Amino acid sequence: MLPYCLVKPFVLALDPETAHELTIAGLRVTGALTGPGRPLPDTPVTVMGLEFPNRIGLAAGLDKNGEAIDALAGWGFGHLEIGTVTPRPQPGNPRPRMFRLPQVEGIINRMGFNNRGIDALVANVRRARFKGILGINIGKNADTPIGRAADDYLIGLEKAYPHASYITVNISSPNTRNLRALQGEAELDALLGALKAKQAALARQHGKYVPLALKIAPDLDDAQLANIADALKRHRIDAVIATNTTLDRSQVAGQPNAEEAGGLSGAPLFEGATLVVKKLAAALAGEVPIIAVGGVTDGAKARAKLAAGATLVQIYSGLVYRGPGLVRDCVSATRR
Fold first, then answer.
1. What gap in Å lies between CA 53 and CA 131, rounded to an integer?
2. Other CB atoms closer than 10 Å to residue 311's CB: what's the count?
3. CB-based contacts of 13: which residues, under 8 Å, 6+ apart?
4. pLDDT at 1 over 70
5. Is the pTM value of this prediction over 0.90?
6. What span, in angstroms and rounded, lies between the C-alpha atoms of 58 and 60?
7. Most exposed residue of 87, 110, 195, 226, measured as fewest CB within 10 angstroms of its CB?
């Protein structure tokens, strides 16, 4: 494999979504030829009742349909999270819908949960030879009324359950209309109650317990975070992923593409997302583990996420600017 420093200029010269599609296509072929790789060695850590071989995982969004699982495993991740996937296939929002901010190592996207649907993802998971920890991130279809959102999440939970190590409930993307309303106190309470009841039924049906994680936004005030922390503890959710992309543009004011609609990720998200981790850690007091994501572009930033109170760290946008070597850097920096 060519060093990423040689490939990077060609990647960044392409339209961002085209580059992403070509990357997934290449990884799909690589995985078929080589089979699954192994995680980088580290001291294992147990989270959600699962033993993770290292603390660094792939965040959802890179492999929405589970097409490149085996090849991505070869980058050394301790776990992979695929999706977000919805019950039915959907095209997402109109193009262009992904924009780089290279001067600050940021990305803005308004993809809108473009994916081939849960059945296609499950078929890809069945074909994969990867035997490590696999998270499946579920969402709702854009045309499902927000009042019936729970129906979509329950479908996703049921279909993903036999194939996932854990399942993430994504209620925090800014690119599906009204989705973040599910983070409201009453809405979240109802959704988590329905999901936990379904989880218990599926555990009996399949004879195994698959943990549930909740992915939240960074754009929450202290009262909202307190309500979410309370709901996580009360419903015994197995983990919280903090955070999704942000609507805040204060870190990128004046940058080209900064005013594009969508969620901002990459380096500009680091401070805000890490502050949410700190606040959640204080509110949860160790009762619910935190998986940190947002702005990790080197090992020091991954280590800072752990210092803020996280147990695991996920990366995605940083890979665009730093390449697969970022995984090794982060694993090395977070050994403890």
1. 12
2. 19
3. none
4. no
5. yes
6. 7
7. 226
Check pLDDT > 90 for residue 41: no
| Dihedral class, residue 294 (left if φ above 0, else alpha if ψ from -120 to 50, else beta) | left
Q: How many domains is the chain partitioned into structurally?
A: 1
Angle, to 10 degrees, between the axis of helix 270-284 and the axis of helix 299-308?
Answer: 30
Would you state the structure tokens that stand for residue 118, as one six-digit string? 């849960």
Burial class (CB in 10 A: 0-12, 13-18, 19+), 89: middle
Quote the DSSP letter at residue 219. -
**Is 173 considered catalytic here?**
yes
Structural domain including 185 reads 4-333
- pLDDT (0 to 100) of residue 193: 98
Q: What is the pLDDT of residue 289?
A: 98
User: In CATH, what number is assigned to the domain containing residue 292?
Assistant: 3.20.20.70
The one catalytic residue among 173, 265, 317, 332: 173
Mean of the per-residue pLDDT values for the chain?
97
Instruction: State whether residue 91 is helix, strand or coil.
Output: coil
Measured over the CA atoms of residue 153, residue 157, residue 163 and residue 169, the dihedral's sign is: positive
Each residue's pLDDT tens digit, 98-117: 999 999 999 999 999 999 99
pLDDT in tens, 64-86: 999 999 999 999 999 999 999 99
Span of 2-16, 227-241, 245-259, 306-320 with lowest mean pLDDT:
2-16
